[in-house]
Structure prediction request, 734 residues.
Amino acid sequence: MTASREETAERLRRIMASEGASIEHNTKLINERHYAALDQLEDDRLERLRERARAIKEESIERLPELIDRLRERVEENGGTVYVADDAADANRHVAEVTERAGAKTVVKSKSMTTEEIEVNDHLEANGVDVYETDLGELVIQLADEAPSHIVGPSLHRSRADIAELFSAHFDLDEPLETAEELTTFARDYLAERIAEAEVGMTGANFLVAETGSLALITNEGNARKVVESTDVHVAVAGVEKIVPTLSDLEPFVELVARSGNGQSITSYTSVFTPPVSTPPLNGSDEREFHLVLIDNGRLAMRGDDVLEETLYCVRCSACLNSCANFQHVGGHAFGGETYTGGIATGWEAGVHGQESAAEFTDLCTGCSRCVNQCPVKIDIPWLNAAVRDRVNRTGDDSILDPLYEGLTPDAEPGGVDLQKRLFGNFETLAKLGSATAPLSNVVANLGPTRALAERLVGIDRRRDLPTFRRETLRDWFEARGGSAVARGEAAVDREVVLYPDVYTNYVDVDRGKAAVRTLEALGVPVTIPPVPASGRAPLSQGMIETARRQATTVHDALAGHVDEGRDVVVIEPSDLAMFRDDYEKLLEPDAFARLAENSYDVLEYVYGLVVQEGADPGALADPSAVGGERVAYHSHCQQRTLGLEAHSVAVLEELGFAVETSSVECCGMAGSFGYKSQYYDLSMAVGDSLAEEFEAMEYDHVVASGTSCGEQLGSVLPESGRPPHVVELIAPR
Ligand code: SF4
Prediction:
């Protein structure tokens, strides 16, 4: 392992050991509430809310300069001031002037990530002003002198016992505080005194309304209201992207932010008001001031950036963080930058702090896509990470090994791409070579010195089992048997399949490919397996986008003729199906994307269509009596679940008489190349252990998994079960 890989591994281990348990407990708890809150919505209401929210954000960012002017006019008409700050220093200078003019010695604040971004507390304190955070989580990290670990729950990494200890160390307590109620009561009383003595109240803003000059604060503690009500000078600090055109535009967000962020139908305090408010301040003065500080700090440049602009749609609900398996184990102190946390932090950090900040952690997004359906404004967070990774790749220094790579690999990348990424991004080349020279290649790859060298040079962790390449590929086998056993003219159904020979099925896991062929033929469908190259998934996950684009085009060209002749494309590996149905939208022309997306199927989705929808006779498929037991423990691949295809496998298994129990963890933790990388191996195994715990609590006769990575990981964390088969291997005719 190189020093930097070892340092990364060590840092992740340290954070997992100190903060992992609290982060995992808290994020999973929020997720349970979040998913239940979404289930309460009738029919397609969630989707309609998301569509509307997305459209409002698209319009708002499109019209941003005009909306800034409109908001300024309104706020000034209402009696407030507006300052558009170019950057953090500009914003802090202005805030300091406002507090100085107010003669403030004390500022009380409600929670605001934007004020964390500009580090306003440090600046005010350097000017002799005491700043008190009044949100409980923010108070905790202020006392601990830490950065937030989560954009909604800044102290999510700390347990109740931790917080009790922190309070004991900072306050002169009569008795130690133990329960959550004791801690919150103490904090409330302590903060009430600070709020009463403060001259200036500072808030962020969840939304700003250009039409009226109104401000929306969505909170659960009521402290933001107190901060505004009690002080006569209100300073609101917000990014320019928070502006929406009209009051009615707030509607979808009020519901979505509450459900996505905390699993509530509405937060405890949802305040929409137009400052300066007319009620007299509680501190006795008779006039209120309102100062709005709009922060650019890179946002206006993000607006025209084809990768980063989508980040400006983010409403910082945190659903993507909570649904991320890696985040659940390390939290934002590892999976985050200077201010922001989680997968979306890549966009925020690259935009406001610079690409180097994002480069530190973007590889922790494995592209599992579990966040995609959770985002209320439909941001494609995995794509954002891949695209920023691509930019980071292009800033690398050339290596002395680049000429060697360039001679051996067919990729479209420049020199300087990290060698580990380049190796995994060219897995197809490796697989062809490994298969052509098997079994010798497998023996050599597993020799101690080879593993040591591979770990040192390219960071392949020696604790991870390597794939075993097969000399006879799936296509070799298929041709040797004379092609399809069902002739076109004799087909029992009016369908024909082209089975996509993904790299893993073709060169490594040939048995699942054979099982798919036998299963489809048993249902009366003619099958063909043409030579089709890799989908581009491997380079895409390394941020090698030009290589992925080139492979996507080649795959399309190889399959287009089959599709045009009426054949259905059936895919075994879910991550490749996700390329065809989702990622290719970014890599191909619209017609080419639609051609593949609309005619490609997961193998079990296809079997479901034949058996359950078209009435094909499943009699030749294996049932529980043929395989020795009916209880199936099933882990569906993350991208398969994002595509909504887990249910099809379950339905087919149940149709055949199996009793199925499914796992609920978001991802197995292997995620393609991620689990092989020495800097991430321990994190990968920690995520895998959460999956193993679920399986250990089940009673089963068979463990099955639908993805290559899932099978490898389950084989590692449940060694007594061996490497589990794909569902199609369980049901294929014996
Ligand atoms: S990217 Fe989407 S899910 Fe993540 S915090 Fe932003 S709005 Fe929420």
About this structure: The chain has 36 helices and 17 strands. The pocket of iron/sulfur cluster is lined by residues 260, 314-320, 344, 374-377, 379, 381 (CB under 6 Å).
